[in-house]
Amino acid sequence: MGIDEILKLIETVQRTDIQELEVENGDWRVRIARTAGHVVHGPIVQPTYTPVAPIAPQPPLVLPIEADVNLEKSDRYVELASPMVGTFYRSSEPGAPAFVNENDMITPGQTLCIIEAMKLMNEIPSEIHARIVKILVENAQPVEYGQPLFLLEPA
Questions:
Q1: Going by C-beta distance under 8 Å and a sequence separation of 6 or more, which residues neighbour residue 112?
Q2: 71 and 1: one domain?
Q3: In a domain, 150, yes or no
Q4: Contact 79/64 with Cβ under 8 angstroms?
Q5: Is the pLDDT of residue 69 over 80?
Q6: Hey, which residues does 147 pair with through a beta bridge?
Q7: What is the mean pLDDT of the chain?
Q8: What's the number of domains the chain is made of?
Q9: Is the full-model pTM beyond 0.70?
Q10: CB-count burial class (<10 Å; 0-12, 13-18, 19+) for 125
């Protein structure tokens, strides 16, 4: 059953007092009904979908450390927190070397890790000159917004 046949059925319902018509033909089943005196007519319109632009990742949060049981509490350390929910990766692909390791010196703009969110790979850059004191998340682990990723000692 094609669209032309369906349009003919709609016209038939419009010209008569038929309130409801149901036709089956093979795998097709069409039901046309009048509602409150109105008849649906015209071509069937397919909905259109507009792709939504991905949300740009927010810059990483740099928060003062609250406490760390493995490190002596100090005002000289800061935490770099996750700017989004996703999966934490230390390298660009499996088997590739990590972007950074503990005790590495980092510079602003240097990629520290990737957070995968909704199939998008978001590079997380450093905003400060610092030394990586500790990496707080294991590779390929889920992270939450604001969760500490790195413990840094500003240079």
A1: 80, 99, 100, 106, 124, 125, 126, 132, 149, 150
A2: no
A3: yes
A4: yes
A5: no
A6: none
A7: 81
A8: 2
A9: no
A10: middle
Q: Domain containing 33: what range?
A: 1-45
CA angle 29, 30, 34 (to 5 degrees): 150
Distance of alpha carbon 12 from alpha carbon 28, whole angstroms = 18
Instruction: Locate 111 and state its tokens.
Output: 């990629």
The residue written with tokens 């669209």 in the block is 3
Averaged pLDDT, 123-141:
94
Is the alpha carbon torsion for 14, 17, 19, 20 positive or negative? negative
d(CA 94, CA 148): 23
CATH of the domain at 106: 2.40.50.100
The reply to whether 30 and 66 lie within a common domain is: no
Q: 77 and 7, same structural domain?
A: no
pLDDT digit string, tens, across residues 78-112:
999 999 999 999 999 989 999 999 999 999 999 99
Other Cβ atoms within 10 Å of 74 Cβ, number: 10
Confirm whether 34 is domain-assigned: yes
Q: Is the pLDDT of residue 72 over 70?
A: no
Query: Helix-strand-coil percent breakdown of the chain, rounded to 5?
Result: 10, 35, 55
In this prediction, residue 26 carries a pLDDT of: 75
